Amino acid sequence: MIRSVVRGFGAALPKRVLTNKELEGMVETSDDWIVQRTGIHKRYIAGEGETTSSLGEAAARAALDRAGLTPDDIDLIVCATSTPDNTFPATAVNIQNRLGIHHGAAFDVQAVCTGFIYAVTTADAYIRGGLAKRALVIGAETFSRILDWNDRTTCVLFGDGAGAIVLEAAEGAGSNDDRGVLTAKLRSDGAHKDKLYVDGGPSTTGTVGHLRMEGREVFKHAVGMITDVIDDAFAATGTTADDLDWLVPHQANRRIIDASAKKLGIPAEKVVVTVDQHGNTSAASIPLALSVAAADGRIKQGDLVMLEAMGGGFTWGSVLLRW
Ligand code: UT7
Question: pTM for this structure?
Answer without folding.
Answer: 0.98
